[in-house]
């Protein structure tokens, strides 16, 4: 008698699980077709990178230099925050480091941070190591085109100007559906230095 009850409960439980499995398969397939549809629509508009900023990188750099004229810039990032694109610019002089944000549409400048350098970075050490070469930089629009062409398709969404081994480069994030590729582009020549893809 116990065996029949246990067997009956097992069959009922398996039937219930099979029913749940079917439901989740249906929702997974409908969710997957929704994702495919959104990926298709993304890929249709993906080449239209949002690079029409009213404030160019040169304008943002000038805004920083007006705020801290006796310092050198060590990094420039263009990223989105609460739906607004902002340039985040960091720089140093011999004793302090600074951070300024410049609105990419209004050119509004806000001083974010000003702090003393560590002892080992003072007296021009960090300044000499990290100073970016800002002459004849390629524009955000140009490096976006280069990065998207290199990837094949997608949309440029974030930009960082940095330096490694004495070379100033743009790192551009290109999104294509769920695929994200970081492309490093020489900031002067436009040569692609390297790229790395995360699926």
UniProtKB/TrEMBL annotation:
Residues 22-52, 106-126 are annotated as: Disordered. Transmembrane segments: none annotated. Residues 54-111, 138-196 form the PepSY domain. Residues 27-52 have a biased composition (Low complexity). It holds the Pfam family PepSY. It comes from the Bacteria. The keyword S-adenosyl-L-methionine does not apply. InterPro entries: PepSY. Residues 1-18 form the signal peptide. Residues 106-116 have a biased composition (Basic and acidic residues). Keywords: Signal. This is PepSY domain-containing protein. It comes from Enterococcus malodoratus ATCC 43197.
């Amino acid at each position: 008698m116990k065996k029949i009850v246990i067997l009956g409960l097992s069959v009922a439980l398996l039937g219930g699980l099979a029913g749940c499995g079917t439901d989740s398969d249906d929702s997974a397939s409908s969710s997957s077709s929704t994702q495919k549809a959104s990926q298709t629509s993304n890929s249709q508009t993906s080449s239209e990178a949002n690079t029409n900023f009213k404030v160019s990188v040169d304008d943002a750099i000038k805004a920083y230099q007006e705020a801290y004229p006796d310092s050198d810039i060590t990094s420039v990032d263009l990223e989105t925050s609460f739906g607004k694109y902002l340039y985040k610019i960091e720089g140093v002089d011999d004793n302090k480091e600074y951070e300024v944000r410049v609105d990419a549409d209004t050119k509004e400048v806000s001083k974010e941070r000003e702090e003393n350098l560590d002892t080992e970075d003072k007296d021009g050490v960090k300044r000499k190591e990290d100073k970016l070469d800002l002459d004849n930089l390629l524009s955000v629009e140009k490096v976006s085109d280069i990065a998207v062409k290199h990837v094949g398709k997608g949309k440029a969404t974030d930009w960082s100007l940095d330096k490694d081994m004495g070379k100033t480069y743009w790192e551009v994030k290109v999104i294509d559906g769920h695929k994200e590729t970081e492309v490093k582009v020489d900031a002067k020549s436009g040569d692609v230095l390297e790229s790395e893809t995360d699926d």
